[in-house]
Structures are given as C-alpha cells and as structure tokens.
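Forgive a beginner's question, but might I ask you for the amino acids of a protein and the tokens describing how it folds?
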Amino acid sequence: MRRAFVAAAATLALVLAGTPAQAVAAAPGAPGIGDPYYQDYGNGGYDVSHYDVRLRYYPDTDRLTGTTTILAKATQGLDRFNLDFLLTVSSIRVNGWAATYERQGDHELVVTPARPILGGQDLTIVVTYQGTPSQVDVNGYTAWTRTPDGALAVNEPEIAWWWFPSNDHPLDKATFDISTLVPNGTEVLSNGIMPRPPVQELAGWTRWSWRSSKPMATYLAFLVIGQYELRTDTAPNGQQVINAYSDRLGAFAEPARASIERTAEVVEWESGVFGPYPFEAQGGVVVPPATLGFALENQTRSVYAAEFFRRGSNPYVVVHENAHQWFGDSVSVNHWKDIWLNEGFASYAEWLWSEYTGEGTAQELFDFYYNVLYPADDPFWDVIIGDPGAANLFDVAVYDRGAMAVHQIRLAIGDDAFFKLLKEWTATKQYGNGTNGQFQELAERISGEDLDGLFNAWLYSAGKPLVVDGGQDGRASQARAASAPAEPVSFQKIKDSHAQAATRGK
C-alpha cells in the first residue's frame, strides 16, 4: 500500500510541476478524420460535444462577424490540433489561454495551445473571426450563396468552413446553439427550436436564436437569412413545426406552400415506416428562385430550391428530404463512400409514398426505371453506388439505382423482414453512423438470407444487374425480365424531387 501511495504521490507531483513527461505524451492531432474520399476533412485528437455560434450579418455587404465556442474532449495528448475553417481569424483561446494559429492547406487551421492538452481533458475553444463568405473560395468554389436579400449557408458535403470553425465530418456530431444578429425586418432560419423569440438587442438590430438538442453533423447545420414569411403550427406528435417561405417566390409561392405545409403529415407517415421521429422539431424553408440548385435535408428543417415547385405542388421532394431525417441525419454515413445509405433510402421513400397514395406501386416504378428509363447501354449503370468515388458522390445513379437496389432487397427478404429492417437500423444506429457492410449484416441477420450476390450486383458491380422475382412472398428466385408498364402518374414528380442532384456539393 505504501509503494502504491508513494507512486501516486510522485505522479501528482510531476503533474503539478508540469514536467516534460506531459510534453512527451502530447502530439499533433491528425489533419483528417480518416475519410478515404476527403482525407483532410474532419480532424483527429478531439471529439466535439457542442458548438455555440454567435454571428452578426450585414446583408448589404455580405459581411459576417462571429465568435464560435467549441466544447470538446481531447482523445489523446495534444500539443496542437486542427480546425476546418476559411474566414479570417482574429483570436483563438483554448481553456482561457490565448493560442497561436496558422493556415495550412486550403481549409485547415492549425491551433497551438499555450499549454499541452492531456488525453481526456475537457476543451473550451473560442474562435473570433470575420469575413465576406461569398468572396472566399477553395479552388474557385464557394459553398456560401448570396441572395438578393441575404444569404444561404446550405450545402453538402462542406458548408461549415464558410461560417463556423469545426471538426467537419459526420463522424463527429454535436449539439448546437446558433444565434445571429441581423437588421430589423430580416428573418433568420436555422435548425431545431427557437429557445426564445427574436429580440432587438441594438437600435435597428434583432437577434434570432436556434437550438439543436440532438447530435448533428456539421454539414447539416444551416443558416438562411433574408425576407421570409414564417408559419408556425403543432405536429400530431406535439412538436413545433416552423415553415418559411421567401417573399420573392412569386408564382412558386402557392405550390410551395401546398407541398411544405404537408411536412407534419409526411413525418407522421414516415414515422410509421422508419420508427419514431428522432428530432425535436419539424419544418422546411423555400428559398428565392435562382439561388439554390437542389434541396438539402438540414436536420429538423430541410431547405428547398423554389424550382422544385415549377410544375405545381411536389410532395415527393418533401418525402425525400424528410426521409433523410432518419437516413442521413440520425443515422449518418461513417465515410462518404456510404452515401447510398442516405440517397437510396430517401429515394425509395418516394416510391413507398407513391404506393401509399395510390399514384403508382414501387414495383411499377422499378419496372419503369429498369426497363424504360435506363437501358443496358446507359452509362448510368457504370456507377458503383456502394463506393461511387468523390466525383460521383451525388450522381443520379446513387439516387435511382440506389432506390432500385432497395427494392431488390425488399423483394429478396419479403415485406415483413424488410420493414423490420428499416426500423431496427434506425433504432440501433440512432444519432450515430453506419456503413453499407453493417446494413447488409443486419439485413442478413433479420431475414436469414445470404445477400452477398444481391449486394455485389447492385452496389459493387458495373453493368445492369439481373432482378429478383418477388413471387408470392417476395422471396428471391430466378431472374426475370419485367414487362414495361405505362409511365406512372407520379413519375415526373418523383424525378423532380431530385432534379439536378449532381449539383449537391462537389
């Protein structure tokens, strides 16, 4: 006992004295989190639990000033670590002490704290900064969008770099407080709930505050600033629903409202398919025309390009983006190569909605896509959706071949096992991350089927695969050549729901 006490006392004395033993244990945090597609995205050596983002935005000049406080824990001894960020930094403090910092690469900010960080130590990192985000680019590209009356911080896989410093990868989720000071009469939309109503803090300036209490990937945090009509209601599950519509929608306004106002209905239906809704709020935002080329599933509140409603109402895009609340937001990719788990299932949710509303069965839609839309010689079939490569991350094949692959799984294992699989996946992986391989393992465990051949053909092989014959009970049997049906009523709406999908992020 005495020897143990002496050893413990000696260790304490070394720690208090700040001996070189601490410095020996400290090392640089990795500049990337280990994603094979984006090797310098995210960072190693620490895990973030919360972001507090406080901003002031000047719509007339696109100037942004801010202070972000990051609460984290060191996962190793650190003598320096990286943040992903682009704007001009004024100061950084780590646990109250001024830190030094330098740029490295196109978006890396290397921070050297005044004192080495011990593994397991809590970190409070405060970064003060300013800039004009629309004028900051990486290789000629900016994810920040300036609009006629404000701005959009909405994009995938990267957007955080332009407005708050972060550990920018879905493997490091955190909760968020986001508050933005803007000129009176300007609205600010973001994720989650409003913990307080907008409040005037300065003459002519109002602060909008938003809070996300469930873990969120950094690219899903968003900011929409401009002139918007807000509509607030209560969902069937008791949650607050906040929808917002740009004042500049013109002819898009009514079809947009006819679609987005169905969000609570869609979420209720999807909760029956995928399991309980995983977040604290619901809603959607429709931005001005000609400002955004896509829709994005920002956690709790998706953002939609006005052009999705150019032919009238489009509930399918609402179904698609809200399906991502389960597939993509709650259960996020482990690495970006697993993107099929996001887009394939969100696209298939549209097919299930079509089936539910009587506008065309999932089998009709599969047959049309397989036999009519994509002939065997179409380069569409060359994309390996289970590992598409960074250049094809948002290729239309990831969406459409992805939905077809999901339908083949459904036929192969039968409806009972399939719908059990959806709920068990979203429950066991809630607020975490998943891989294609883990999904296959779960599908095989629930169904008792060997699915290697199906997954290899549909996810990991080029060329047009053979199809599963569902038969009477959906079990796999010999391949068949499906007859080509007439185009379903819902086909154009479904295609609209991911039009210009390739413009999502890079």
Confidence is low (pLDDT under 50) at residues 1-24, 470-506. The first helix runs from residue 2 to 17. Residues 79 and 115 are 8 Å apart (CA to CA).
